[in-house]
């Protein structure tokens, strides 16, 4: 079977499975999710063996250490995947919920019912745990899923998908609800981009390059996820202790994630007081600081931040700092460089807080809190499939509700249009 | 200025205007909408003169009569456009509505506020009234709009846009909230397809060819609208009088619209009784009937319906009829040929009605009513920008709420992530 045939055959099977899955009871879906979790744990040895092949291949091919770490599976990580599936089983089933049924003057009862999207294509990079996470969320929301993971994780992904698909089928779900594209050739992704007939949506999970490739080439509707060049603005009227804690948390609590801070904007009135303190703290946390010329004047030995720095999502222990004249200059900076993910103001001033909330265009806008909270779990949505940075369909953390659509249902008794 | 420059310049201005428009009060937006309505009426002569140029050009170039009719403006139609703007002014402002603000265990107050999409690109065909309708809906929902109408209507569209833009600006809206691409070259549309930097969404309004071109070529997110190959299934347990009235209404009340019926499916048990009656009625309404072989056996002189007929959105006084063995065969037919717009079952049987509602995958699924009701006004949404036949973001009639997105706003008091 050639690459194109493989993708189309699997997408077709997924489409067929999706039709059957759309009306399956929560009881059966939850039973399948729990069986998948159990089966993952029972298959730990087999999955770890497959993962060792990927790790060996990755090491031989000089995969960088952070990527190897993402690729690595351990007994604990497999338990984590199983636990994730069990948590998804606990979530309320979104499917079938009727929103806003109203009676019209002519007697028609018109409502909207939540239904699955259909087949969701997920294109992701090296992390094999995405395989189980995405499959669980898609199934719970009544969708079939066509997975396409990174080539580095192909053996791990095959092992995990085989376990999940078998457990789902044996628990009573239709055959084909979880499919993995096994071809690691790029052509496979190109085929997925044009499969409007079988795929209802594509969700890329990975770096900016992957996301741009999907957005630029897919005719299937895409939900963009994840790039976060996040800012925190410390206002002249900030509580500086709070500002310090939030800055350290947003930058250093975890750096390789999209909701971590990349640029700190500091009001000029407090720059002389605040910068020496915060830069000292950041250095204690092994964080490299780059600064604008005004930062360089206040603190010695600061590397110059360039235009490129303002636009960079470091995902690392690096922070760009800029001194601004006022809130308006902070807003302009954010407007220019933000990827519209998460932005925060630290201030005790009511009017400035409201202005920031009103004027910043981003998925999540914070007053006096760390941007690190932009996360499905933290927002109370349960597990998340990703964080949308686009405006259509879903914005911000996407839980299972965001993997659904609505259809209008209309109960009549013979109404015709005049 | 070349074509590309024109489009980019206007899109850029629209983006700038959109930022200002996003936080403008309802009072000011409504004032502008009413001023636009008044100014349209005051400029009737000038708009009609521009329209005469388009009509003359269209006639000289052999534009078919139905297209000329869509292109034609009259005093009454201009009043209709003005009235439409006044109705949009009456709608509640969707912007700023806070949905579901909740307090999390850590004290963060997390809510979602409804905000505009930004800049909406509308690509449409010959009907110049779309210019005013779309502009009104976009402005009310806080969006700037970049319009690109059909070349046949260019003079009418220019005249209408000039009037609207001037009135909006004089009423106090930012400059550039309503823009028309004046180049009638196809290159202009190609440029719009790739303007992700300035356009937040593209909405095509027109025939299947236009919609497909936009879906296949745009990297800007698209909301697909409108193609409706709608079915009505008359069950063996239908009230046949009701079935007759609904069939006639769905097919003949207005034929050139996407929610009219194109194929009638009739259960075999009632076919011999129902078909002669309904075909007679349809003929009285000048409707050409095409039928499957079973229809041809029951009624004389029926043209054979081909595979192509089942897939055709006639938008005309033509109806394809097929006799089916049962509900399942009707569901399979709909599943195969439906464009997922509007589908109806006529039955007195409760279980079959629920099964149809559950299993049909379409924007609107009806029991015992005409598919002609799929319309923003009829559904109680106020005016509509189109009917989405896709699943992402919006499905079915799209009113002003569907021209918005959300952003999360988070009120903290120093929270950091553990």
From TrEMBL, chains A, B:
The protein, known as: Gamma-glutamyl phosphate reductase
Main localization category: cytoplasm
Reactions listed under catalytic activity: L-glutamate 5-semialdehyde + phosphate + NADP(+) = L-glutamyl 5-phosphate + NADPH + H(+)
SUPFAM superfamilies, sorted: ALDH-like
Family: Belongs to the gamma-glutamyl phosphate reductase family.
GO biological process: L-proline biosynthetic process
Functional pathway: Amino-acid biosynthesis; L-proline biosynthesis; L-glutamate 5-semialdehyde from L-glutamate: step 2/2
EC number(s) per entry: 1.2.1.41
Gene name in the database record: proA
Entry-linked PROSITE patterns: PROA (PS01223)
Any one Gene Ontology molecular-function term assigned to this protein's record: NADP binding
Locations listed in the record: Cytoplasm
Pfam families according to UniProt: Aldedh
Cross-referenced NCBIfam families: PRK00197.1, proA
Class of enzymatic activity (EC top level): oxidoreductase
Domain of life: Bacteria
Species classification: Bacteria, Bacillati, Bacillota, Clostridia, Halanaerobiales
GO CC list: cytoplasm
HAMAP family in UniProt: ProA
Entry keyword set: Amino-acid biosynthesis, Cytoplasm, NADP, Oxidoreductase, Proline biosynthesis
Span of domain Aldehyde dehydrogenase: 5-284
The species this protein was found in: Orenia marismortui
Record's function text: Catalyzes the NADPH-dependent reduction of L-glutamate 5-phosphate into L-glutamate 5-semialdehyde and phosphate. The product spontaneously undergoes cyclization to form 1-pyrroline-5-carboxylate.
């Amino acid at each position: 079977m050639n690459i194109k045939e493989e993708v189309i055959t699997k997408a077709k099977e997924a489409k067929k499975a999706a039709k059957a899955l759309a009306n399956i009871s929560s009881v059966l879906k939850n039973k399948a999710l729990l069986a998948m979790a159990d089966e993952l744990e029972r298959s730990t040895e087999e999955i770890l063996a497959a993962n060792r092949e990927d790790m060996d291949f990755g090491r031989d091919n000089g995969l960088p250490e952070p990527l190897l770490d993402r690729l690595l599976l351990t007994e604990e990580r497999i338990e984590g995947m199983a636990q994730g599936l069990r948590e998804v089983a606990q979530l309320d089933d979104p499917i079938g919920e009727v929103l806003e049924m109203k009676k019209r003057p002519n007697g028609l009862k018109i409502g909207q019912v939540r239904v699955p999207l259909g087949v969701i294509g997920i294109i992701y990079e090296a992390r094999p745990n995405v395989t189980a996470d995405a499959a669980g969320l898609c199934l719970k929301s009544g969708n079939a899923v066509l997975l396409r993971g990174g080539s580095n994780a192909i053996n791990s992904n095959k092992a995990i998908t085989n376990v999940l698909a078998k457990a789902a089928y044996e628990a009573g779900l239709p055959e084909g609800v979880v499919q993995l594209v096994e071809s690691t050739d790029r052509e496979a992704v190109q085929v997925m981009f044009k499969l409007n007939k079988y795929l209802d949506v594509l969700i890329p999970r990975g770096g900016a390059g992957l996301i741009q490739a999907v957005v630029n080439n897919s005719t299937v509707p895409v939900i963009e996820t994840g790039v976060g060049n996040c800012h925190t603005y410390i206002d002249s009227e900030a509580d500086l202790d709070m500002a310090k804690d939030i800055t350290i948390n947003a930058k250093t609590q975890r750096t390789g994630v999209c909701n971590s801070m990349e640029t700190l904007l500091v009001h000029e009135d407090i720059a002389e007081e605040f910068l020496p303190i915060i830069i000292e703290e950041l250095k204690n946390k092994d964080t490299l600081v780059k600064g604008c010329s005004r930062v360089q004047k206040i603190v010695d030995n600061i590397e110059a931040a360039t235009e490129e720095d303002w636009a960079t999502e470091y995902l690392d222990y690096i922070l760009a700092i800029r001194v601004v004249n006022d809130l308006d200059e902070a807003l302009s900076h954010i407007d220019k460089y933000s990827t519209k993910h998460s932005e925060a103001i630290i201030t005790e001033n009511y009017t400035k807080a409201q202005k920031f909330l009103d004027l910043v265009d981003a998925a999540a806008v914070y007053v006096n809190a760390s941007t690190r909270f932009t996360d499905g779990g933290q927002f109370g949505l349960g597990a998340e499939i990703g964080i949308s940075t686009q405006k259509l369909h879903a914005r911000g953390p996407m839980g299972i509700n965001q993997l659904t659509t609505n259809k209008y249902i209309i109960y009549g008794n013979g109404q015709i249009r005049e």
